[in-house]
């Protein structure tokens, strides 16, 4: 059974369970980086919020032999556990006074999100785009967020430059930055939340590269930059003075590896020993490692870039290299 056939079967079963007061549809949704996911959307006549349930994990369970009736029980439990108990005031989104303190930033890859960016407010940054989102932290959709569309800016009578100032201030408060050495990061359970980290250990690096770029005392000299929530933390490279202060603390220019949308890895240039390589060869090898991790370790929705970035202490800017 294909995923589309499974989705239709689930839709019919859910409709039978919930009855005529509900309108249920299965739909293919495009997520970040153009990744497509099949979902079930349940509309109730009693509310204006339609929960969306992604069907991929349930389809996997079914394909692995789980009884369809048990799969439906899991899906319906997910619905009842998360269906809002009250309506959401959609007009709040267009009320700039209400959302102003809730607008934050995150980064995405420009090329992989061209369709998304067509009507989404954004600012380009190298091969990436800064997008804005409204953090919904109260009411029936708490813990959700809404991307800021170009149409919102017209309603709010503002522009991306002004929005960036507001969103940066909010992001620093709501998503404060945190830098840890890789050793510190690995000490906790958080290791499992960043799948690319394992692939970056010395053995894999040496196996992958034709000629190794030696990282002296590897894990003690690699640093992970994210925010304290470890969600969309790659945007921290944009925070004022975060990379600059780190660069000053290590006394070196800094390479920035875009390990995912949730975090980046900082490597002081002084740690990279290019005794047997030219600078260009070293950069090519590190970029090859980035591609290897992106293609083999990282969920497609968490991809950020194939590029390597470089912070120049004198110029105080970040460029792709």
Nearest-integer average pLDDT = 86
How many strand units? 15
Tell me the major beta sheet: 6 strands, antiparallel
Unreliable sequence segments: 189-195, 197-218
* Distinct helical segment count: 12
How far apart lie the N and C ends?
A: 46 Å
Strands across the major sheet, in which order? 8-10-12-11-14-15
DSSP helix fraction: 25-40%
Q: Give the CA-based shape.
A: globular
Number of domain modules = 3
Could you tell me the strand content as a percent range?
A: 15-25%
| SSE sequence, one letter per element | HEEEHHHEHEEEHHEHHHEEHEEEHEE
Secondary structure category = alpha+beta
**Radius of gyration from the alpha-carbon trace, in angstroms:** 22 Å
Describe this structure in words.
The chain is an alpha+beta fold. It has three domains: 3-82; 90-174, no CATH class; 177-320, no CATH class. The chain is built from twelve helices and 15 strands. The protein has helices at 3-18, 56-63, 68-82, 96-99, 114-117, 150-156, 160-174, 182-187, 196-199, 202-208, 242-250, 279-296, and strands at 22-30, 36-44, 52-54, 103-109, 122-125, 128-136, 144-147, 177-181, 214-215, 223-227, 254-260, 263-268, 272-273, 309-312, 317-320. It has a six-stranded antiparallel sheet, with helices on both faces. Strands 4, 5, 6 and 7 form a four-stranded antiparallel sheet that branches. Helix 2 packs antiparallel against helix 3. The model is unreliable at 189-195 and 197-218 (pLDDT under 50).
């Amino acid at each position: 059974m294909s995923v589309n056939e499974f989705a239709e079967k689930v839709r019919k079963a859910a409709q039978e369970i919930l009855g005529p007061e509900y309108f249920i549809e299965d739909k293919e949704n495009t997520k970040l980086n153009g990744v497509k996911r099949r979902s079930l959307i349940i509309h109730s006549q009693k509310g204006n919020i339609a929960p969306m349930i992604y069907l991929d994990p349930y389809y996997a369970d079914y394909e692995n032999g789980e009884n369809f009736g048990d799969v439906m029980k899991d899906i319906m439990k997910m619905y009842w556990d998360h269906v809002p108990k009250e309506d959401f005031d959609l007009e709040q989104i267009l009320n700039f006074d209400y959302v102003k303190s809730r607008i934050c930033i995150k980064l995405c890859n420009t090329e992989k999100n061209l369709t998304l960016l067509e009507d989404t407010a954004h600012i380009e940054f190298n091969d990436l785009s800064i997008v804005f989102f409204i953090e919904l932290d109260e009411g029936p959709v708490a813990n959700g967020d809404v991307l800021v569309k170009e149409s919102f800016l017209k309603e709010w009578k503002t522009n991306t430059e002004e929005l960036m100032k507001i969103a940066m201030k909010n992001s620093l408060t709501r998503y404060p930055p945190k830098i840890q050495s890789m050793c510190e990061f690995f000490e906790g359970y958080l290791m499992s939340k960043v799948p690319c980290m394992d692939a970056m250990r010395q053995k894999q690096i040496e196996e992958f590269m034709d000629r190794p770029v030696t990282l002296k005392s590897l894990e003690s000299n690699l640093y992970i930059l994210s925010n304290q929530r470890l969600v969309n933390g790659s945007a921290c490279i944009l925070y004022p003075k975060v990379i600059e202060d780190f660069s000053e603390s290590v006394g070196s220019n800094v390479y920035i590896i875009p390990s995912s949308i949730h975090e980046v890895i900082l490597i002081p240039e002084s740690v990279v020993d290019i005794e047997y390589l030219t600078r260009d060869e070293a950069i090519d090898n590190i970029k090859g490692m980035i591609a290897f991790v992106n293609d083999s370790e990282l969920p497609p929705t968490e991809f950020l870039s194939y590029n390597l970035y470089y912070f120049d202490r004198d110029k105080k800017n970040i460029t792709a290299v």
